[in-house]
């Protein structure tokens, strides 16, 4: 028997079905973005530029597909798994630029909202500590100091974004982490410099015949 609510319920059902289908697609795309972005970061640290580029390209394609799936459901841009995926993608792209000493891409250039971009920038700055330590292991003091300088510059910039957690979740905590990492990295670089000076001093103090 027809109900007076049949038309209304059918309209609601169609809208919710479309929303659920979009949600499932966005979940899948978000997982791909996160996986590919993580792989890109690992490849960068290994010096595998080709692998990093391939992963970033795949992540970018998944991101474009996810954004496309949000066109009819814009709320998913800011809820669910997509904000985390945006953050991971921004981190990978920014880290790529940092490691190449290239211009840092903007949020609009990456196609991500400003909130996950800011937290992704913070995470990328933290990844530069690993770059600094890898440089120190190779006695590349210039590379270590450059990585530390990038970390510090990012910290100063992000620290100026004084907004509550409700506006940018987790940013203040991440900025505090960067500050600690910058301090630790500065200590590591200083100790490495001192160690090199001591080694050079000892080498110069040896008799000519004992030097190797």
TrEMBL record:
Keyword terms: Magnesium, Metal-binding
Family annotation (SUPFAM superfamilies): Translin
Residues bound to Mg(2+): 127
Gene Ontology molecular-function annotations: metal ion binding; sequence-specific DNA binding
CDD domains (alphabetical): TRAX
Tagged with keyword Iron-sulfur: no
InterPro entries given in the database record: Translin_fam, Translin_sf
Keyword NAD: no
Protein name: Haloacid dehalogenase
Source organism per UniProt: Candidatus Methanomethylicus mesodigestus
